[in-house]
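Entry 14. Ran structure prediction on the chain below.
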Amino acid sequence: MGLWARISRVFRASTGAALDRIENPELVLQQTIRDMRDRVPELNNSVAQVMATERLLAKNKDNLAKQVVELDSKIKASVKMGRDDIATAYIGQLQQAQVDLERTDAQLELAASASKNALKARDNYVLNMKKKTAEAMQLISAAKQAKLQEQLAQTMEGFNIGDDASTFNEMREKIERRVAAAEAKLQLGTSSVDSQMADIEREAMDIQLQDKLLEYKSQMGLLGAGSGNAASKQISAGTEPVKDEDVLEQVIVNEAGDSGR
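Output, structure tokens:
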């Protein structure tokens, strides 16, 4: 292989590779559809010219046919009038008109066949164009779908679920540590000195209320002297407070004693 042939092959290969990279199938198919549609008016013009030729020949045939009839009538009239010279002239014209009529008739047949073929070719082209257009639209749709799938694949390649999983685990651990710390602080708060003091204050309040209740019952004579002194001694000694059940039991005992007396 010669040097020039090798250079030409390398150049064509490089050019083809570059065209493959920059060639967009969607744009190429769309341009192909436009080119096919642009040829339709040209075909229509060609068919119209063929049909115009057919119609022109048809008119010429009609005119020649009329001319033959008129010349025949003139020949007969000239013969009747004894004008053989004029009849002879008309006969020459008639013969030429008949030749023209035959030639025009043959041309008309050819033109009619050409018009028929042109119309058929135009219809076939339009039908093929519609078929190719539908196929091209399907290819364009497939190309768009392939493009979307490629973009989705690239997105999925850049998406690493492991990183996000580690992030979720890290955030979960942080939240759990915060919850544990909050629960510990709450527990410390409930067991603190302030909480214990609040419990003591509530207990002292209960003792005061019991004392007040005993005082009222003593004034009303519902408690015996011994019971009142014993209750007072228990309160002053810092023993457990008198319960309502104990007070009620003492009242019943006192009432029973009074009834016995």
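The mean pLDDT is 77. Will compare against last week's run tomorrow.
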